## 1
Amino acid sequence: MTLHDEYRALYQSYLEYCNAHDFDSMASFYAPGITVNGSPMDPGAVTAQFEPLISAFPDWHWDVAHLVTDDENIVVHFSVTGTHRGAFAGIEATGRRVDVSEFTLYHLEDGKFAAVWDLLDMDSLIRQIS
């Protein structure tokens, strides 16, 4: 198995936990000194960011459109879907289905995500529930 195959397998395992909304298991993939969009965080704080999103969109689901690896990084382009069932960004539940793009770069160190840069098309999400 090549390094790229290992990274793909690692990411697939992580994605399964993400889509199951299993925050504890997700946190196990994060290095203790992880940074997210340049800000240092502990693994629990990283997963806590997902809680309001999952509360508002309980069926939130990431589907990989593209996944690229190199010797230290995994880059993913997602299609993300969910149904607006709870308040989000000050907008009460609408029951509307959303479909947005997300791009994330994961930098790996010792088999863990040490740095993450993430860009979700939040403008599109807000337009779809407004």
## 2
Amino acid sequence: MTRNTAREIAVHLAYEWSFSDLPVEEFLDQQLSAETFSDLAPEYELYNEMPNEKQLLYIRRLVSGVSEHAAELDSYIEKYAQGWRFERISLVASAIMRVAMFEMLYMPDIPHGVAINEAVIIAKKYDTPQVAKFVNGILGSFLREEIKE
């Protein structure tokens, strides 16, 4: 499994966690089980292979970080989604942007360009080309205005 696949799984889980009442660690324990991967594999190819230990830690760090910093990340999305109320942004797009913003803010080992590029690729896979452009625009503005290199 590649880091790209692990990131995509993290986006899936960040999205799904938004509907869960479970504490994030309990949710991740359930979702990152061999049984859950086996159940999801017929529907989603990215669940065909169980992540290794390093990938599991990466996924857990992303999803836990997104849950811990959700209010902060959402405020950035709202700030840069000019002309859009946060409620109008699809939950998939929000999850994608939360993961990318968390990487840019809190994971210095991830190049910012990689975080944005991967977010756009995931957005193209799960939403329309217009949403992918929207995600790219918001993340680009966020990077220029908020990230001090």
## 3
Amino acid sequence: MKKILALVTGGFTGESAVSLKSATVVEQHLDRKRYEVYKIYIYPGNWYYESTTGEKFPVDLNDFSITVNEEKIRFDGVFNIIHGSPGEDGKLAGYFDMLGIPYTTCDAQTSAITMNKGYTKAVIDGIKDLHVAKSIHLFGKRPRHTKKVLEQLRLPYFVKPNNGGSSIGMSKVKAEEELEAALDRAFQEDGQVLVEEFVSGREFSIGIYRSGGKITVLPATEIISSKEFFDFEAKYSPGVSEEITPGRMDEREAERVTHIAEEVYRKLNCKGAVRMDYFLEHETGRFYFIEINTVPGQTETSLISQQVRAIGKTLKEFYTELIEEMWH
């Protein structure tokens, strides 16, 4: 008997376009012998399933079901691929928890904490061998913020919306006079902003997931961007950044980051597949935490997809593992 699966996509933020791309790939690679799949679009005030003929069937929010040709369809589980709100910030997880429907991503508490870059850094601070760049967490736009940053941090800085994703609203500040505009840009995206001292190092991203009760750390990808940093354009435009999987680390570095990644996954109580971004500092060889994505992109060229292929697994096998894990 096939399990009935809702593949949820869309979302309430600018990242919905990326979510739709990820969902298209996931849909292509799901095991149809095991699962009957319905793609559910979630937009503000508009949750629906669209049939192959283009007919839209609304979702009954009382029990997250759909009625197609007079047949009521309930779901055994949810494959969540919504980046940003409400799929990555805990709102959707809390809703599914109340209905008792399992899902492939982190629980509501972990999703909410990890969506907040400042809080995440506070939780993972203290993990052996993992360093955190000096930063200031700003709440609400205030004129005195600029002075506070200039007094407490040394240039250059990264200025980023605290709860944003896909690097929208993020800037690198090299001179004092650029700070004001960078803060304005970040505050347009979010009421909280994180300003971090710049770490000079090579950038990597590493996937981590749990399957059969065991945590697997995938090979890291090294990101060489022709841009100043791995911004929205570098992430989603072909040719702007070069990605090497597995990234160039010696055996000891690869071993150390595997331990670090596993510990971060445990300490944040993650579920499903997540992606941790980090710097390997040039002078010291120290690992610096950048951020964690609890609903990482799943397009064909996404970092996780590259890393899964690097260990000789197909995306179909990988997605099956993620789905089966949510029922354990």
